[in-house]
Specification:
With about 170 residues, the protein is α+β, with helices and mostly antiparallel strands. It is built from five helices and seven strands; from the N terminus they run ββββαααβαβαβ. It has one domain: 2-C-methyl-D-erythritol 2,4-cyclodiphosphate synthase (60s Ribosomal Protein L30, Chain: A, 2-Layer Sandwich). About 30% of the residues lie in helices and about 30% in strands. It binds zinc ion. Zinc ion binds next to strand 1 and helix 1.
């Protein structure tokens, strides 16, 4: 038997956007970023992790982040999004899914994220217990236009591939 046929595969897409406000914390992929402004959010407003969570929930057909962690629930106020990602990782693992790879894009006009990309990769891949090389992070600006370009918002997109070993039907 060709080994690839012993697995089923799923892909999932996630996105997130938060408004930026002067004086707020900016946390991306669990990494504290030194910046004059940060996300307006019920949680820590980590767009990178929120996009990854939605991609994982999408691939597994488990809905979206708002269903699992409603922002009306005081339990999630100011919560470290890494904790939410751990919960989601345990959930998909309980259904035997394993992550093949994740590709993440963060859109921010400022600050320049290039110096943080490695840290963000390490942080998310370690939370998920996955290979660092399979967790890619790209950073783009808003080209000075739109809500990202005017530094009014920060946005992220993530795509994930999951696989699960097929149960033998013999
Ligand atoms: Zn969010």
């Amino acid at each position: 038997m060709i080994s690839g046929l012993e697995y089923e595969y799923r892909s999932g897409l996630g996105s997130d956007l938060h408004r930026l406000k002067e004086g707020n914390r900016l946390v991306l992929g669990g990494v504290e970023i030194d910046h004059y402004a940060g996300a307006v959010a019920h949680s820590d407003g980590d767009v990178a992790i929120h996009a990854v969570i939605d991609s994982l929930l999408g691939a597994t057909g488990l809905g979206d982040i708002g269903e699992l962690f409603p922002d009306s629930d005081p339990a999630f106020k100011g919560i470290d999004s890494g904790e939410l990602l751990k919960i989601v990782n345990d959930l998909i693992a309980s259904k035997r899914w394993e992550i093949v790879n994740i590709d993440l894009i963060i859109h921010a006009q400022m600050p320049k994220l290039a110096p943080y990309k490695g840290q963000i990769r390490r942080s998310i891949s370690s939370i998920l217990g996955m290979d660092f090389l399979a967790m890619n992070v790209k950073a783009k600006t808003g080209e000075g236009i739109g809500v990202v370009g005017r530094e009014e918002a920060i946005e992220a997109f993530a795509i994930v591939m999951l696989r699960r070993r097929l149960k033998r039907t013999l």
